[in-house]
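All the exercises in this workshop are built on plain-text protein records. The record below serves as our worked example for the rest of this section.
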Amino acid sequence: MATESTARTPPYASYTSFNNFLTHLREHPPLPPRIDKSVMSHLNYGTQQALIVAMRSLGLVDDDNKPTERLEKLIEAKEPHRASHLLLALNQAYPFFCGGGFDLERATADQFAETLRKQGVKGSTIDKSIAFFIAAAEAAGAKLSPHLTNRKRGPRVATNGAVAAPPKRIQPKRSKARNANTNGAGKHDDHVSDSPLVNQLLEKFPEFDPKWDEKIQEKWFAGFNRLMDSAGLSHKKA
């Protein structure tokens, strides 16, 4: 059984993954008596764990991962009524924002982050939790401060108070032969992101080596394209 602190952790999953999973449950009835890894077998382990935390926090499953009435209503509701059920779930997951003491229509991103830190949220999870809340609140039709929705990440601050260097932008290399075969289409320079989270994913991806044979090159580009799709980046044509 989950601990109380785990159940109350604010959602930090990708809202897209969360919404896609709800759609998956909606399109594959009946709703199972428990949301476990077998129901999420199409997702990687990290996404599974983040979604479970989010669903507990939102009151969609209990501590034993059994669906609640709220999840049933959210799954069964039709548009536009689905938004009201999502808003109720947000009120449970973020009582410190939705309980009346926090002005969501005027607040800044720093105020939002400071409030999350008081709840024990740390590190990169803060950005993830803010991103989830903004996306979910907008989907639920909530009014949010433009200071929050239009936020831009500033320089990272190290634990000693010093400003850390911004994350590097990774620009994958392509062989001349590959560029010739594709007539310059799909340049990866177009996919460089301003998101530190996306760039962290790119940093973990192996650097392209033009000495690889054609089959390995093809596998590299296929894998890179899947990474771009999962990060929500479009593939532009030159």
Observations:
- The chain has twelve helices and no strands.
- The two ends are 52 Å apart (CA to CA).
- Residues 4-149 form one domain.
- The chain has two domains: 4-149, 176-230.
